[in-house]
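Sample intake sheet
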Amino acid sequence: MFKKRFFAYIIDILIVFSIINFIGIFIPVSESVSNLDEQLMGINNSFLNGSINVNTFVNQYSVISYSLERELFLSSLIGVVINILYFVLYPLYNDGQSFGKKYMGIKIVSNDDNAVSSNQLIFRYLFMNGIGSTILCLCLIFLIKDDGYIYVESILSILQFIVAISSIFMVLYRNDKRSLPDLIAGTKVIEVKKWEN
């Protein structure tokens, strides 16, 4: 089951990544984004060659990174919308299956084997793919400034990493093969015939 879930996830991520990149072609990149990227590379290089200390690096990095996140707000928002459409709405109207899950012959159901609900899919994916932490960061970017925002974003990234790693071990070693998002949402992933309706 782990292999099927893993490959389904890879397929789905590649699809979502491709859609986001395709839409990104039509979103103009401002000159300030390019300038901020160059500044970040400059700070990284300065830190690596020892011309600035850790405190200077962290202070400068947080200010520039915060500005870059604000500049990329629209792109991040579009990414969240596409993730929600693909991982929540598509499976909701496709019997608990994304394209990857359908291809690998698995689907998401409720614990009682009934069809998965929209609330369950929302809760499940808030804790997967970083969607929940990205939504929270998009809200906080206008409430918290510079280094405070970067610290919160870093903590959320670490928490998301912990959820991902623990979910992998749970799917590998739990008898019911349920991940942490499955436990939170009251769902499970079951095997079905490929392309079953």
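Comment: Residues 2-191 form one domain. Residues 146-173 form the longest helix (28 residues).
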